[in-house]
Amino acid sequence: MNQILVTEKIYVTPELKRKKKIYKVLFIFSVFCLILLLSSYIYAVYDRNKDQSIADDILLFMEDGEEDDTLISDKENALIVLITQDIEEDEESKGQETSLKTATATTTYVAPNGKTYESIGIIDIPKIDVHYAILSSTSVELLKVAPGKFHGANPNEVGNLCIAGHNYRNKRFFSKVPTLVVGDIVEITDLSQRKIQYEVYDVHTVDPSDRSDTTQYTNGRKEVTLITCTDNGQLRVIVKCKEKK
């Protein structure tokens, strides 16, 4: 019996104790990292769902909101139709006449968190089940909520309306846009409820710095350009569409 105890003491060396402490520390650190990663994932899902909820609310208000210019309280969620006009003087008429430069209509949705989101229309792509409001501009934060106007003409006007949307690779926003092919249909509804169908005529990828596809030289046609990332985020997918006659 004593021999066995002595043998056990011989095996429990200081080096073994040190290794046990290291393993224990590593185990605790691993558990901490796992909890941190899990928490980050849960928060990301929550944040994504929150943005999706706002996108759904914007779309719902655009589809069901009343079309009038009644003044409302800032505390209420509502659609406010804003018409802004930039007027410039016509130099040839020596200031006696003015010409309309642009006329942009937007609807403004006030979210429960107090943030406002301006939209200019709705995009539908039946083939890939895309149905979103088009925000009036793009930014890192806005692109988390819905596709937005990146550049160009207003919805259903002569020119090239360029719409950018995130590729979340999970069927949200423009994730399935890279699967579109020539002949597919993209529908744009403006704030006057006019819906125009656009037919895809070209699909290609470009470097992120290449802006040539945003040109406004359309020979008097109404065009739409969809922009999103490839799955690896290295290139940009460009889908060119023209009004279907």
Main attributes?
10 strands, Sortase, Chain: A, alpha+beta, ten-stranded mixed β-sheet, 25% helix, 245 residues, 2 helices
Per-chain topology:
Blueprint: H1 2-11, H2 14-64, E1 79-89, E2 98-110, E3 116-125, E4 130-135, E5 148-151, E6 159-164, E7 185-189, E8 195-206, E9 222-229, E10 236-243
Parallel strand pairs: 6-9
Antiparallel strand pairs: 1-2, 2-3, 3-4, 3-7, 5-6, 7-8, 8-10, 9-10
Please tell me about this protein's structure:
The protein has 2 helices and 10 strands; from the N terminus they run H-H-E-E-E-E-E-E-E-E-E-E. With 245 residues, the chain is of the alpha+beta class. The protein starts with a helix and ends with a strand. The chain is elongated, with a radius of gyration of 28 Å. The protein has a single domain (2-243), classed as Sortase, Chain: A (Beta Barrel), CATH 2.40.260.10. A hairpin with a 5-residue loop joins strand 7 and strand 8 (195-206).
Look at the structure and give the mean pLDDT: 78
Helical percent range? 10-25%
Low-confidence stretches: 66-103
Distance between the termini: 98 Å
CATH architecture heading: Beta Barrel
Which of globular, elongated, flat, extended, rod-shaped describes the shape?
elongated
Q: Strand portion, in percent?
A: 25-35%
Secondary-structure-derived class: alpha+beta
Count every beta strand, where a strand is a DSSP E run of 2 or more residues: 10
Counted up, domains total: 1
CATH top level is Mainly Beta
Order of helices and strands: HHEEEEEEEEEE
Q: What fold name goes in the CATH topology slot?
A: Sortase, Chain: A
Q: Report on the biggest sheet.
A: 10 strands, mixed
The CATH homologous superfamily is called Sortase
